[in-house]
Amino acid sequence: MKTYFSQEFFMGNRARLRESFMDAAPIVITANGLMQRGSDSSYAFAQDANFWYLTGIDEPDVILVMDRDKEYLIVPPRDASRTAFDGAIDDNSLTSISGIAEILETEDGWNQLANRIKKVQRVATIAPAPAYIERYGLYANPARAQLTELIRSHNANIALLDLSPHLIQMRVIKQPAELKAIQSAIDITIAAIKAASTASKRAKYSYEYELEAEITRGFRARGATGHSFEPIVAGGVRACTLHNVSNNGQLAKDELVIMDVGAEVDHYAADISRTISLTKPSKRQQAVHAAVVEVQKFAYGRLKPGIMMADYEQEIMLFMGKKLRSLGLITSIDHDSVRKYYPHATSHFLGLNVHDAGDYSQPLQAGMVVTVEPGIYIAEEGIGIRIEDDVLITPKGIKILSRRLSNDLTIRAV
User: Fold this and answer.
1) With b meaning 16 or more CB within 10 Å and e meaning fewer, what string describes 402-412?
2) Domain ranges of the chain
3) Domain range 7-170, CATH class
4) Can you tell me the distance from the alpha carbon of 274 to that of 293, in angstroms, rounded to the nearest whole number?
């Protein structure tokens, strides 16, 4: 499968991290581990984005060490049984991808690292998330927490420095190879949505999962590794649940259907939403859809380098309030009234993760990629509409990377 990333990309990222960090402390970063699905089976492996950004390696449980002018990988040993099921770790392949020549198995690697840890006062790593992230209702991958425990087991008094701010500042500005991968993911997403939304196919869908399956087939057939996040296909009132990922509902011909999907290419994500009508939309549905289109156009006009995201979001909320008032949904433009029908932000960063690394307290800069996704959700009328596109911030404004996909209710050709 084609890759947009060379060994030089990962070597360059490690060099940039050293320049940004400017500290003599050893840098120790872990890959993710496998997560149990049931009994002896795991969920599909998803690599830690920061680890991949620095190494290009897609194996679990590998540790990257960068210490002064030295760098090496610590890889787990595999017995014959696990190798038979999961394959062997090929040291030559790891070196070819990452540019890291020294590869040590766990015992030798940790003996070398432990000797260094005992002599220093600080180690730089990525701070682990809480075991349970209450805000998102998610359990964190335990690899980072396990790494910090291992480091402290060799030096209980060591200070751990968090590299997250440095990596956020690096990752938020996309390099040319990253932009090519993102554009490829976007192009595949557009093609799959178009193919799944022809008039003849829209007339045949009876369940949300049929549309989801058609999009999934379109992604894989066009070279994507799959979805960059759990796809959302939701008709009627179910579209008012923002992350409706069950995709099992029966579709009525008079309903609108939200598709919020994105292909993944070379680890990079697209994130595009369109709302379609299976037959002829009602005047009310058309009016609500037109309002969402106008809000998105307004948002495009506000995006440029130097803009603070908080100010941008506030402007859009007020403009959305005017549209909601014109639709007869609210009488007063205030936060609570608007958020009843528009409960999410307009933009988030996009890249290695669909909600990518970024600092929302800093102004936008050229080279950042963000989404623009206004929506209106009227549960009492069974109408949910969201339109989402992917946008590159340029020195003079923006480039809409997904501009080739129309935003009308029938996905007409553009």
Assistant:
1) beebbbbbbbe
2) 7-170, 172-400
3) alpha beta
4) 11
Residue 79, pLDDT > 90, answer no
DSSP conformational letter for 283 = H
Query: How is residue 413 written in tokens?
Result: 């050709």
Give exposure, 261-294, as e/b (b: 16+ Cβ within 10 Å).
bbbbbbbbbbbbbbbbbbeebeeebeebbebbbb
- Listed in sequence order, the residues at least 6 apart from 41 whose beta carbon sits closer than 8 Å to its beta carbon are none
- Sign of the Cα torsion 341, 344, 350, 355 reads negative
Place of tokens 């751990």: 160
Once rounded to an integer, what is the mean pLDDT over residues 120-131?
97
Q: How far apart are CA 29 and CA 48, in angstroms?
A: 10
- Evaluate if residue 408 carries a pLDDT over 70: yes
Buried b (16+ CB within 10 A) or exposed e, 186-200: bbbbbbbbbbbbeee
What pLDDT, in 10s, does the model give residues 26-77? Answer: 999 999 999 999 999 999 999 999 999 999 999 999 999 999 999 999 999 8
Count how many residues are written for the chain: 414
Q: Is the pTM of this model over 0.90?
A: yes
What is the separation, in whole angstroms, between the first and last Cα of the chain?
A: 29
Helices marked H in 197-329: 199-202, 208-221, 283-302, 309-326
241: number of Cβ within 10 Å: 15
Say if residues 106 and 144 touch (Cβ distance below 8 Å). Answer: no
**What was the pLDDT predicted at 88?**
74
pLDDT digits (tens, 9 = 90+) for 352-368: 999 999 999 999 999 99
Q: Quick check: do 7-170 and 172-400 share a fold? A: no
Is the domain defined by 172-400 classed in CATH 3.90.550.10? no
Picking from 392, 394, 395, 409, the residue whose alpha carbon sits closest to that of residue 182 is 392
Q: Are 236 and 258 in contact (CB under 8 A)?
A: no
